[in-house]
């Protein structure tokens, strides 16, 4: 059976839209695939209110080691990065990935975000606004 990896800092026990989406995605995919979740083991639930540079840096480093270990231990047929930080990590470790964007970034001109998106094999977005973005 094929293995799929979902890379996300947003997973239970935290509560929110991204966490719910990640859990639902894992449940749906587990009907056909072996699904592993690469996430951060938080000591207490976190309520996210924006993501400044310091928080992004913490997310990057807290996800880096688990992703590195899982990618060395298993051969995944598909890897889904839920968001920008997981996608950056996949690029950092030279891992092929598809990105699922759960936020709007209001791209106006090429920048770091568009560079990351161009590295993905596939890009999944929410709704028409996400497609326009």
How would you characterize the overall build of this protein?
Helices cover 43% and strands 15% of the residues. The chain has 133 residues and is of the alpha/beta class. The chain has a five-stranded parallel sheet. α2 (53-73) packs across α3 and α3 packs across α4 (112-119). The model has no long low-confidence stretch (mean pLDDT 83).
Helix-strand blueprint:
Layout: E1 3-7, H1 17-29, E2 34-38, H2 53-73, E3 78-82, H3 84-92, E4 98-100, H4 112-119, E5 123-124, H5 127-132
Parallel strand pairs: 1-2, 1-3, 3-4, 4-5
What's the assembly state of these chains? single chain
* Main beta sheet strand tally, sense and closure: 5 strands, parallel
Average of per-residue pLDDT values? 83
Question: Helical residue percent?
Answer: 40-55%
Q: Which outline best applies?
A: globular
Distance between the terminal alpha carbons, to the nearest Å?
A: 35 Å
Structural class: alpha/beta
Low-pLDDT runs: none
Using the CA coordinates, give the radius of gyration.
Answer: 14 Å
Number of helices: 5
What's the order of the H and E elements?
A: EHEHEHEHEH
Strand percentage lies at 15-25%
Number of strands: 5
Biggest sheet, spatial arrangement of strands: 2-1-3-4-5
